Amino acid sequence: xAVGEGEGxAVGEGEGxxxxxxxxxxxxxxxxxTADADLDVRGIQENVNGAFCGxxxxxxNTVDAPAPGPLATTCTPSDRACFxxxxxxxGAQPDWDGSGARSVGDPAIDVDDVNGFGPENLDVxxxxxxxxxxxxxAYDAGVGPTCATFKLFVDGSLRLxxxxxxxxxxxxxxxxVSVAGASVVVTGLEG
Length: 191
Hints:
The chain is an all-beta fold. The chain has one helix at 56-59, and strands spanning 16-19, 24-32, 38-45, 52-54, 72-74, 81-82, 108-109, 120-127, 130-140, 146-154, 157-166, 171-180, 183-188. The strands form three sheets. Strands 1-13-12-9-3-6 form a six-stranded antiparallel β-sheet, with no helix packed on it. The chain has a five-stranded antiparallel β-sheet with strand order 7-8-2-10-11, with no helix packed on it. A two-stranded parallel sheet has the order 4-5. The two termini are 18 Å apart.
């Protein structure tokens, strides 16, 4: 269901805690309603300094773009940002579990859908402890605004669904996910 610009809606368990196994599977999905739009699902793991850092081109299609916030920022190190350029199932991936090698604890995006509608999926098969921020960048909203719908699943259960109208160049933060042992806290974000 589409909602007005800037408004969001949580469904399922939505915000709050849930008990899960020691390894938590995270699945973030982004779809949109315009055939000529190009939206990108993105994720960032909190870095050692407690910040959600991304390179400037993570938030915009220009390298000198200002950081959009409210949680994400342009800072270093930005090696934990996951987007189409560095986070594919068969290519490079940020090291989200600290293993130093490609593993099931690292994120992967299945496809960079540039032809409209999506879905784009960002998966972490076995998420280690830590905080992650999930969002979307509207690389090109097509001939007008498009309605983006984000869904977050934890161990296969829908925990958050939110729709928002976006225009070209918009960055939207949908969810903060905190994993600590058997506890997962999903916080829906409004921007």
